[in-house]
Design goal:
heterodimer, A: 232 residues, mainly beta, eight-stranded antiparallel beta barrel, two-stranded antiparallel ribbon, 2 helices, 13 strands, 9% helix, B: 149 residues, five-stranded antiparallel β-sheet, 1 helix, 10 strands, 53% strand
Chain lengths: 232, 149
């Protein structure tokens, strides 16, 4: 009898596939939060390119399971002196968008692998107060490009990861592609557009290396619990 | 951990670009003659080229079929003298000056737009402006026609 039961059990486990049975969706509470972060890469960048000074801040808030509203902003100042000219730029930018974490989130895990979209705008002023154009025959021209204000507008796609390294403290990076949409043509294009990158490129790709802190709150999410039952 | 370190390394290792563009701006002129209705390349023999009032600063001396003349970026006009053994012609140029940022690696260049050219016609027969924007390309801006015996 015992052998018969064992045989039937093995037979059923092989022949009858397991079928997932879904319960009705139900609301549950789990930990979400507002994350405030800053980009660490500019600090490394300042070491390699000292004329650049600025910061970049990030704010995101989970509003639905795996979906985040994101606001980002920053300021950038760049002063450059080269043989033949000096250049100065200062500006700020603002970005709004969403991120989506496409990792299935487990209750005690806060890692995310995400993609996101942004619309962004910058406001910058730049000038070249000293320009010397060398001419060995007629003589050098000393001139200046007066200050001009620009408001470029662009669109971004981003993807990256975030991991909780300490309680509510996150470390992550993301890569971004930028599509410049509105860009007034001037005598002099800016060396760098704050938040966008190299203004000479139509599709610059940039990195952010972000440390952020989460101010937690309970988030209501809709979950479908699964349990495995034998079925056909 | 590698997933966190690699992007930072890649960003830190990007090298700064260097100037790869030509920063010299010349008015490029070609010497031509017309034979049986067809344009042919020609030479100005034993010619001296200098700016008007700058006889002491000869730009070119010898036989030339092409001239690369700098325009005066400090003024809206300038003139060049072409002087042979027995003749002398003066080319007068008027233009609109602009300063353009070529790139941050290369710096600024002067550009000259709406080029207008006139000449005395002792040895020269005629001229034609082919490209009225003088910039850092090697495009031919001006054609100078001479009569050959």
């Amino acid at each position: 009898m015992k052998r018969t039961c064992v045989f039937i059990s093995i037979f059923l486990s092989l022949v009858v596939p397991l079928r997932a049975q879904e319960d009705q969706p139900h609301d549950t509470m789990r930990l979400g939060g507002v994350r405030l972060g800053m980009d660490l890469l500019p600090f490394a960048g300042f070491l390699f390119d000292p004329p650049m000074k600025g910061y970049e801040l990030f704010l995101d808030a989970e509003f639905s399971d795996g979906w985040y509203l994101v606001a980002e902003g920053g300021r950038l100042k760049y002063d450059k002196t080269e043989p033949g000219y000096s250049y100065s730029m200062k500006g700020s930018y603002m970005k709004m968008g969403i991120d989506h974490n496409f990792l299935k989130r487990l209750p005690e895990e806060n890692e995310s692998l995400f993609w996101g979209l942004r619309v962004a705008a910058a406001d910058l002023t730049h000038e070249a107060p000293e320009v010397t154009i060398r001419d060995g025959y007629w003589g050098d021209l000393n001139t200046a490009i007066p200050a001009a204000n620009l408001r470029p507008f662009w669109f971004e796609v981003t993807a990256g990861i975030k991991a909780e390294v300490l309680k509510n403290l996150f470390l992550g990076w993301n890569v971004r592609g930028h599509f410049l949409l509105i860009y007034p043509k001037e005598v002099m294009q800016p060396y760098i557009i704050p938040g966008y990158g190299n203004a000479e490129k139509k599709f610059p790709v940039t990195f952010n290396y972000v440390i952020s802190y989460r101010f937690p709150y309970k988030l209501r999410v809709r979950e479908k619990k699964r349990r495995m039952v034998p079925g056909g | 951990m590698v997933a966190f370190i690699l992007p930072a390394t890649a960003a830190a290792c990007s090298s700064s670009p260097r100037c790869v563009e030509d920063t010299d701006v010349y008015l490029n002129a070609g010497i031509y003659t017309v034979r049986e209705g067809k344009e042919e390349d020609a030479f100005l023999q034993d010619v001296k080229v200098y700016g008007l009032g700058r006889e002491d600063s000869v730009l070119v001396k010898g036989s030339v079929s092409r001239l690369h003349l700098p325009l005066d970026a400090r003024q809206d006009s300038c003139a060049w003298v072409l002087q042979g053994d027995t003749w002398r012609d003066t080319l007068f140029f008027r233009y609109r000056r602009t300063t353009r940022l070529l790139s941050f690696e290369c710096g600024f260049i002067a550009e000259f737009k709406d080029l207008h050219a006139e000449s005395t016609y002792h040895h020269l027969d005629s001229l034609a402006v082919k490209a009225p924007v003088v910039t850092n390309t090697h495009e031919e801006n001006l054609r100078l026609y001479i009569d050959l015996p």
